[in-house]
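Support case: beta-D-fructofuranose complex. Customer-provided input:
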Amino acid sequence: MNKTLLNVKLQRICIGIIVLFSLLASCSQDTTKYRIGVSQCSDDIWRDKQNSELKIGAYFHDNVELRFAAAYDNDERQIQQIDSLVATGIDLLIVAPNQVSTISSAIDRAYDRGIPVIVFERKTNSKKYTAYMGADNYEMGHLMGEYVASRLDGRGRIIEVMGLKGSSPAIERHNGFRKAISQHPNIQVVATLQGDWTEPTAYNIVKQWLDNNPGDDIDLVFGMNDRTAMGARKAFTEARAALPLFCGIDGLPGENGGITLVRDSLLDASYIYPTHGDKLIQLAVDILEGRPYEKETKLMSALVTRDNARVLLMESDEMMRQSQYIEKLHQTASGYLNQLANQRTLTFLALATIALLLLLLLGIYMYYLQKARIDDERTQMEREQLDFYTQVSHELRTPLTLIEGPLAQLAETPDIKNASAGASDLFAIVRRNTHHLTQLINKMLDAQVGAPKSDMTDEQIDAITAKQEPEVQAEGTVPDEEAPTVLIVDDNADIRSYLRSILQSRYRLLEAEDGKHGLEVAREQVPDLIVSDVMMPVMNGLEFCQQVKSDVISSHIPVILLTARALNQHHIEGYQSGADAYITKPFSQELLLVRIDNLLHSRHLLRDLWSSRPVEGKDNIKPEESAPTVSNEVQIEDAFIAKFKKVVEERMDDSNVSVEELATMMGLSRVQMYRKVKALTGNTPVDLLRKARLSRAKELLTGTQLTVSEIAYQVGFASPSYFTKCYKDEYGVVPGEDRK
Ligand code: FRU
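Agent response - structure generated as follows:
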């Protein structure tokens, strides 16, 4: 695969895995976006109602998380709580400040940090808020004042019990109430007692006032909230037999709520002080999400009297039922969401594991890819190195051969043998150093490629030459017609000429300058042996050798590869191509002659093709001596011999059959068949045809009653007398004697 293409693919896989991871990560992310802090100044049933409305309101925005804090009417605690909420990193603050001025600093700090602030229900004196939401407490006080006046028919004595001093509803309700009352001169506010919105405080201060004013009749007590009114009522109940009317504010539903108290006549009237947590949340989300919103929102409200208390309770019961239903729905939905989240986590883990496994596999794959690439590069480098050294060695060894060889030849000439001592010494120095140089180059090249030296040592060579000294013919002798033919294949003309100088006195020589030409000569002339170079243009020696060995005409011809390629690997390649011997340059002349001589003499001649006993099976035509190097060659020759035998036995009874005809039947030329048969059997085809006929005749003599003449004609002899002569030559006896 193309490397850049592979890299692009790997990059895509990595990006894919990263995207998968980020998707999984985003799936598993917490979806909460807005953290809203709610700082309540108090903790009571009014705040409880509002908090639960806030919670339900948040259900409709699944990206809202609420964090509640209640200060229990304590300024310092509320300041602290606001600061901590801000520190937890809230996105918006909803605050009901305990008093107008005391909490402002904390609210300002939050606002200054860029946190939107919604002030609700109670006010501050700071302008640092984002929005305000609440009922109009002045109006509420005013309406209550008017109600009280009308309830008392414009005449009576009343006590006002205030809410927490400094808290805005207390101030505003008071102002509104007093304003309304001031319209009725016959209504007298006997006392304005300072409470703090709680029932126990109201109880205590009213009890104290009653103790201090035992005879004072009171017609109505206005508590600024329902709890204050009930505290006052408790004090009155304990102190007086006749109770005044009690009015409060808040008008909550449920047990102890103002509406219930009015319905049960414990309070005369109340005023619904709206909680509206849902609206508050909506306002918060609008601010957070940048939607337009009202900076000041006034919440509408209503008076609760005995006339409408039941209806209001029914309505609020219905509302509560709805709220509970919503709450239940929410619980169920949360259950499902939890399940979903668990499943998502599991899916995430599974996918993450798969992704990790993929990454691991990718890592392993890339590791092996890298390793394979490095191995390839190394192999390539080694191959290039080998080629380089082979080339270099070829370049060096060829001229060395052409120096060493001729020097060796020169040494044998009378000129050198009879030379003066000085000249002889000089000649010896040249020879010794040439040899030394050869050895140095061998060592250097072998060390460079890290291959063991695979040439024979000089001692080994000497040992061979000493044992099997070939018959060296005198220079200038011309080989006779019977001398074996040797084909020299080499592209280097000097090497060819050097080889010629070594071989020409002993063998008839053929030459070719490359493998292709060599193959043509080998097929046409069927030489007895081939000496070939390996590195040649057009067709190299290895391929040439392979082709020689796989052609039925030439398969039997021994091939000596003569080459500069000296490494073990080269030797192996040479023998794999079917070579019978592998000699490296520079070579010794004696070694080459011994190898040629041995190979020519160790051909596996099949002399007994038609002996007295007919040769039938494959085993019988197998070479007697050691097997040839290539089994392929043996198979080709087995097949050739079997075919030759068949052709001869088919045609031998015909006295007119010619060698040409037999060759044609074999698919060869006369020369090709002659050389092949001679090389394999040591006999000419004519000799073998005669042997085959005589062998059959011998069978017929012993196995039939046919006369000698009849037998002679039957086995293809034209004359019985010639048959008798040949028979005697072959078997040493005349046919008549074998008949006995
Ligand atoms: C609740 C409460 C109410 C009262 C309001 C005034 O905490 O005390 O009873 O109407 O606050 O802010």
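The chain has a mean pLDDT of 85.

Case will auto-close in a few days if no follow-up is received.
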